[in-house]
Specification:
heterodimer; A: alpha+beta; 5-stranded antiparallel β-sheet; 4-stranded mixed β-sheet; 9 strands; 30% helix; elongated; disordered C terminus; B: alpha/beta; Spore Coat Polysaccharide Biosynthesis Protein SpsA, Chain A; Ubiquitin-like (UB roll); 7-stranded mixed β-sheet; 5-stranded mixed β-sheet
C-alpha cells in the first residue's frame, strides 16, 4: 500500500521511517499546506472529501507507476480528509532513493498525478462567509466556457491549487 | 386504386427551447427518443428518414440515420414535411415527432390501417384527433403526396402551422385509441413524469427496471441532497443514467466535466449497467 487517507494530522516522522532502507542515500518529501488566500479570496478553512475506495486504488497505481518509472527505493503518499484549518498539512509525499535527482523527479510526479487523477474534492470557506467546491462551481456557472480542468492531464498549471 | 408507398419521417429539427437540451437525444429505457421513434416507424414504413435542419447533419444523435435536410424556406415542422414531400414526390409520409414517448405500435398500426382502407380517398392526410381538444394531430399523421402543392400555397400565404392547415383543408380524422399516446414532452418536469410513467408501465409488463446504487460526492452530494441512494432506473448506461439524474436533481456540471466509476473502478459512459451496480459520478477533482 503506497497511498492512504487520514482523518487526523499526518505523522511525517513515522511516514518517513517507512521509507528508510540502507540502500537509500537520501529522501525527498513534499508537504501541501492550507493557504489563506486563493484567487483573491481570503480562505478561512478547507474541507476535503474523497471517494476513498477508488481514490486509494488510483493513488496506489500512481505511486506504483513512479516506482517503475524512476530508479527509486520507496515512495508513499498520505492525504488528509475532513475539515482543515489554515496552516495544516493536506497532503504528504515522500520518496527515498540512492541518489537525489530521481527522488525529486518522482516526488514531483506523484504530487502532480495525485492532484489530477485521484477523486478528492475540496471546499473552500471564505472570510466573506461564502464557500465553494474548487474546480466545480466556476465551471458550472459558465458551462459554455471551454477550460482545462483536473481531468485534463495536459492542462496548464492550475491557479486554484492550495499547495 | 392503391395508396402511395409509405415512408417514415421523424421530425428532429426542433430547437428544444423549453427542455434546454436536445430532445432527440433524451433517453427512455436506455434509448434516445430519436432511436425509439425511428425504430417504431421502421416497423410500419418501407424506409425511414430523419428530418433535420441544414446545421444538424453532422450531429452524432442524427448523423448515422438517413436524413432529409430542410430544402424549403421557413421554420417549424411544416418545413420538414414539405421537404420530404419534395424529395420523394410519389411517396406518402408517416410523420412522427420525436418527442412522443408513449407512442406505441398499436397507435401506428391503426393509423396505417385506416389510411390504407381509404386508399386514394385519404385526401391530404390521415391524423388522430387530439384527446385534449379534438383538433387534428399533424405530427403523428400520414401525409399524402397530394398535400405538397396545397402546403406550398398555404405557406406562401403566410401559414406555418400544420394543424391549422389540416383544420382548413380537412383530413381524415381518427378517434384516439389511447388518450395518452400522443402526449408530448417539452420540459424537464414533463420528462421526469414520462420516465416514471414508463417505468410503471414496464413493471406492469413484467420488465422490471434495474436497481442501482448511486453515491454522490462534493458538489453533486449537495445538489442531490443525499450522499447515496438505491434507484430504480430504465437507463442502460451511465450516460443515460446521468441524463435522468440531471432532470431529477438539476446537476449543474455537464457530462463532459465528469468521469464515472462503476463498482469502484473508472468506467466508460457507454458501459452496459447491470442490476446492483454501484455508480459514482466524479466531479472535477481538487486534491493536494
Amino acid at each position: 500500500m503506497h497511498f492512504r487517507f487520514t482523518q487526523t494530522a499526518i505523522d511525517t516522522e513515522s511516514a518517513r521511517r517507512e521509507l528508510q532502507t540502507l540502500s537509500a542515500g537520501g529522501y525527498v518529501s513534499f508537504e501541501g499546506w492550507v493557504r489563506d488566500l486563493n484567487e483573491g479570496q481570503e480562505v478561512t478553512r478547507l474541507e476535503y472529501e474523497a471517494f476513498q475506495e477508488l481514490a486509494v486504488k488510483e493513488g496506489d497505481r500512481i505511486v506504483a507507476e513512479a516506482l517503475r518509472r524512476f530508479p527509486i527505493k520507496q515512495a508513499l503518499c498520505i492525504h488528509r480528509v475532513g475539515s482543515l484549518e489554515l496552516g495544516e498539512m493536506a497532503v504528504w509525499v515522500g520518496v527515498s532513493s540512492a541518489h537525489r535527482g530521481e527522488a525529486f523527479d518522482a516526488c514531483r510526479f506523484i504530487i502532480d498525478e495525485v492532484k489530477h487523477r485521484v477523486p478528492i474534492w475540496k471546499k473552500e470557506h471564505y472570510r466573506s462567509g461564502d464557500s465553494g467546491w474548487v474546480n466545480c462551481e466556476r465551471c458550472a456557472a459558465a458551462p459554455q466556457h471551454s477550460h482545462a480542468h483536473h481531468h485534463d492531464r495536459s492542462g496548464a498549471p492550475k491557479s486554484t491549487e492550495s499547495v | 386504386m392503391s395508396a402511395p408507398t409509405l415512408h417514415g419521417l421523424i421530425l428532429a429539427g426542433g430547437l428544444s427551447t423549453r427542455m434546454h437540451r436536445d430532445k432527440a437525444a433524451l433517453e427512455y429505457q436506455g434509448r434516445s427518443q430519436l432511436d425509439r421513434a425511428f425504430e417504431l416507424a421502421s416497423r410500419h414504413a418501407a424506409k425511414v428518414f430523419v428530418s433535420v435542419r441544414a446545421d444538424q447533419t453532422l450531429d452524432p444523435t442524427r448523423a448515422h440515420r438517413p436524413m432529409i435536410v430542410d430544402s424549403v424556406a421557413g421554420e417549424g415542422p411544416i418545413v420538414g414535411i414539405r421537404s420530404a414531400l419534395a424529395a420523394h414526390p410519389q411517396v406518402a409520409w408517416l410523420v412522427l415527432a420525436c418527442d412522443l414517448p408513449f407512442l406505441s405500435d398499436a397507435t401506428i398500426e391503426y393509423l396505417v390501417r385506416e389510411r390504407n382502407a381509404a386508399g386514394s380517398a385519404a385526401g391530404f392526410a390521415t391524423a388522430y384527433k387530439s384527446a385534449h381538444d379534438g383538433l387534428p394531430e399533424p405530427l403523428c399523421a400520414i401525409w399524402e403526396p397530394a398535400a405538397a402543392k396545397a402546403l406550398a400555397d398555404y405557406q406562401a400565404g403566410g401559414g406555418h402551422c400544420p394543424r391549422k392547415f389540416l383544420i382548413r383543408h380537412g383530413a381524415r380524422l381518427l378517434e384516439p385509441q389511447d388518450a395518452r399516446a400522443l402526449d408530448n414532452v417539452n420540459t424537464p418536469e414533463e420528462y421526469i413524469q414520462a420516465l416514471s410513467a414508463l417505468s410503471a408501465l414496464s413493471v406492469r409488463d413484467k420488465v422490471t427496471p434495474m436497481q442501482l446504487k448511486i453515491q454522490y460526492y462534493a458538489l453533486m452530494r449537495e445538489q442531490a441532497g443525499r450522499s447515496e441512494e438505491t434507484l430504480e432506473t430504465s437507463a442502460s448506461t451511465p450516460a443515460g443514467l446521468y441524463e435522468e439524474l440531471v432532470a431529477r436533481y438539476g446537476f449543474t456540471l455537464s457530462r463532459e466535466q465528469l468521469k464515472v466509476a462503476v463498482n469502484s473502478e473508472f468506467s466508460d459512459w457507454s458501459r452496459p449497467l447491470k442490476l446492483g451496480d454501484a455508480v459514482v459520478f466524479i466531479p472535477p477533482v481538487a486534491g493536494g
